[in-house]
């Protein structure tokens, strides 16, 4: 009858509300004065505690609620929809339920869905559905200071409890507040009783590989990996411990089949890397023996034993592990090969890119070298043409200039080659004049010595002999330096070097362009001085470079290490205004 159904529904609602209120009262009575962590370290969210300890709240007054229609049962197929399950888990977590958001429907997900349905007076199906997700999203987020069950009911307090609450309210806020403990890592999902293994070979010869153990309903959630091969052994236990970094945990892994057993003794230092070696009692010696052992039986038992039970997520339990069907193993092998092929293809593409880039760089360098070689060839041809028109001394001066980077920057090499002859002639003329004067001086000295009565005839003869020898040597030198065609290479080199001293100081062959460019670029690199007024930076730098170039081409000094600085200093000072 409709009336009876409505009454039964209301009675059930009252009983549920009273039960939830009783639980909330117990939680409030046992609550600590400070808020604990919101997680138990394994993803199980704890109910937040209140700062006061009120008495057990009274049962809420029943409200008149119209009897709703019987809720439709959600489709069980929704549990297989990872996106729907993940969104459901996300909303449950927002409302304070202890659940991991991983899209996998398991016992804990079902448990938390049932808890929410009961709190909302819905039919407790425990299944994920679009209707359930809509209800979850419409439910407001509970306040942090209240428990899930107590959000709809205000607890009653006794006079003594009211006084205690008032006294606590008067205490300094800093004295009541305690630092919340750090949240630990969320707990992994429970490991199913039945597991499944997949063989993964990473060695083309089959000498090494992995046995991946996972939950059948979610092959991506690996429980453990067992590596065997190349005299290196490793176990990787995803759920062995949540945080054991820098903590050594010894353990033993036992694999037992109808045909034999395999024991592994190792130590964990990180929960994803556990290393060790087989037990002396191991009955297999190679990876192939190991695979044959578990493949022949088709099923094996898997157990982890450790001296640190608190870190062992596997507990003392022995798990049944099934080898995959040929179809599943073939699919796994295909996926593995596809991954290998994908990596190989990516490496090939990357190698081709690198090779292409290297070839492009090589081609660029080769092209630049061709241009440089062509320019060098043009320059060499020009230099040969210039030298063909020069005197022997001009050739020496020109060759010395083009080999010197600084000389090429500050002088016209062709000019030096053409002008050097007159400076050589001038230098030789000065040398001839000096030697002639010396010989004349020797002749005068001989005459004075011979007229000196104080000198003996022997002494006069000795002095005249020595001076006549020097006069003869200098006459021979005069004959050589006055006959340029007879000069050897050494004499020509010495004559040119001596003449360059005068030619470099002359303004004849100095060039301004290199000095102008050099100083303009230097000026552009630095901040414009504050004392310069009425000029843009370009105008200022142009002024500096022009003044430096003017100083160089009009100065009477040859190039040396201080010329560049001197020319720049002149330009900087001249362009202040």
Automatic annotation (TrEMBL):
Region (Disordered): 1-84, 144-187
Compositionally biased intervals (Basic and acidic residues): 9-26, 160-185
Listed Low complexity bias regions: 46-75, 144-158
UniProt entry keywords in alphabetical sequence: Coiled coil
Coiled coil is among the record's keywords: yes
Coiled-coil regions listed: 454-484
Every Peptidoglycan binding-like domain range: 84-136
Protein name as it appears in the record: Peptidoglycan binding-like domain-containing protein
